[in-house]
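Model: You mentioned two targets. I'll fold them one after the other.
Researcher: Yes, keep them separate.
Model: Target one:
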Amino acid sequence: MEEIKINTEFIKLDSFLKWCGAASLGSEAKIYILEGLVKVNGEIATQRGKKLRAGDLVEFQDTTYKII
């Protein structure tokens, strides 16, 4: 599990995928999300703008990211 620190109250899911390095472009992140390849707290997330906060878990490509 990788811990990723954010500097704001929340971060949107597509921005988070770029922030942690899982996606290099916003359009790439959008495709991953719309194809159902990303889970937030164990559930498939299809909303690019889903707000993530400290304590949330994001799963993508066999890696789990914990937001701190």
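Model: Target two:
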Amino acid sequence: MLNAHWLETFIVLTETGHFTKTAEIRGMTQPGVSQHLSKLENQLGHALISRDGKKFTLTPAGEAVVIVGKARRDQEKDLLQTIRHDDPGIGRVSLGTAGGFATLLYPTLFDMMMASPDLNICLEAAPQDSVLKGVKDGRFDLGIIDHEPRDPRLEAEYLGQEELCLVLPKNALRAPITFSSLQKLGLVAHPDVNQYADELFSKNFGSMFKGAEQLRVRTSVNQINQIPAPVENGLGYTLLPRSGIDAYPNRENLEIMTLPDPVFHSLWLVFRRGRVLPARVRRVSEQIRLTSSALETR
């Protein structure tokens, strides 16, 4: 690595053309300027100037070093500007979130990006283990999961909770809902539905519920934004966190049925421990808080 002090002295020397003026600008003595030049030449193994009395011209090596030195100066200037001006509307923010919260959150970020053309928000829906790994590896600036992580490399902020919902076609069944009426209607299955059924049905249907593997499945789909569609069309019921329902465009054609013993999932915002979050990431995290808080008021 070129010594930064020697390099800057040399660049100033090429700009002034005088050792004395360079010494004044750098706050040095004239012999000190000569010493910096000599040390830089020794480090490179090439002469950088060719002297002609009090004047000098650059050697080919000197011309090459000037290009590098000015480029480095510009890079340092840009770096300082970036550090001093932490603009919330400039840069990339990467998010990883599990479950239906991704489909609810993403549309709320559109206005933010439209107002800030240099803000790039990348959201990825992923399993919770992948979200946690992505935050630890630095692939995600922020993650949203349904439990507090027990990892010393991570920090987590509790956002609130959302209800695990029993979702039916509009006016398909009348309350009170029975397990046999649900079996007759049939289940719209998805990758998380067995876990959700074990949580919700075991609390509400007692001995009638023999386990998720005994549920009558009418159809299945693995894209969360597509799960409500067969329910809307009368093919069966499903179980989803509220965020996965509220994000559905035809939400008015679905009905959430309340069971006596509801189940709620927590939402946690996760980021790397000790990291000072840039303004753009803090801005997006505030929108995440607003979106999650709206779930609890519904």
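Researcher: Noted. Anything on target two?
Model: The first strand starts at residue 49 and ends at 52.
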